[in-house]
Amino acid sequence: MLRPLLSRLGTALATLILGSLVLFTLLEVLPGDPAAVMLGLEAQPDTLAAVRRELGLDGPAAARYLGWIWGMLHGDFGLSYTYRVPVAELIADRLSLTLPLALLAIALSTLIALPLGTLAAAKHGRAADTGVMIFAQLGVAVPNFWIGLLLILGFALTWPLFPVGSFPGWGQGLLPGLHALLLPALALALPQAAILTRVARAAVLEVLSEDYIRTARAKGLSDQRVLVRHALRAALVPIVTILGLQFSFLVAGAILVENIFALPGLGRLLYQAMNQRDLIVVKDVAMLLAAVVITVNLLVDLAYLWLDPRLRRAG
Fold it and tell me: What gap in Å lies between CA 27 and CA 30, rounded to an integer?
């Protein structure tokens, strides 16, 4: 167990270092002069020189990279050029919305997909299976920002059941916060639920053809118990794989969905920083999102070892 664990930790660390190098190169080396990118083409030379000194751009690239990594390890993400406040404060404030939004979307996606996928596998070739597959095809075809617009039109404008353009904050209580996040979480969850439904259906169908499933039925176990206790449990490995990958898509989709619903989250902060050419915020937020995605993938790999003993023996 220790050997595969160390191997996966080493892979995650190497991926994180490589990602930081690529991100630093794209934002601070390839543009030529980050200060000119931030201030625009008409900036005066003395202004450019002052910004370079303020941001430490007059030093060598290797020293700037190591200083950036060292600062992040100590919680120092630098000072936002636009907002003039520490980037760590901006990220902490916006993450309190984006993280619950992503977790709620994952929960909704799982609650929708697992029952539908299992139902489609149990009713393979029947009307229920056809209906579930139509839902899956539509969910894959329609992007999450379009679903978000339809949800706003239906449940915020036509029937004003949910708020749009405001977030009360968690200080007002858990229920008001979840009520404000439900529509954007649903917009994020539905396309991912469609993909997960297809994966769950295929995985459960494959398991249902195994010999031990027929043995369980021959022992007199009910269809419901066979599906839930044996088939679905054995099909969890590919399902967990897709859940880990979906978290990356949810992080990317949150940038669009938070802007559509005007939510002050991490995705909206990244979008605003890009418009305002605040490369400090862009670099730090993008690195944080990359670290979150790599960490989630690491947790998925560790879940494999827990779900499938054969992987532990192979390690």
Answer: 7
Report the pLDDT value the prediction gives residue 163, as an integer from 0 to 100.
84
Would you report the helix, strand and coil content of the chain in percent, each value rounded to 5?
A: 80, 0, 20
DSSP-assigned states of every residue in 50-83: HHHHHHTTTS-HHHHHHHHHHHHHTT---B-TTT
Phi, psi of 110 (to 5 degrees): -70, -45
Contact 277, 286 (CB under 8 A): no
pTM of structure: 0.81
CATH topology of domain 87-314: MetI-like fold (1.10.3720)
Domain boundaries, the chain: 2-73, 87-314
Number of continuous H segments (helices) and E segments (strands) in the chain: 15, 0
148 near 261, Cβ under 8 Å? Answer: yes
Q: What rounded mean pLDDT belongs to the chain?
A: 82
- pLDDT single digits (tens) 135-184: 889 888 888 888 888 999 999 888 888 888 778 888 888 898 898 999 99
Through-space distance between the first and last CA atoms of the chain, rounded to whole angstroms = 7
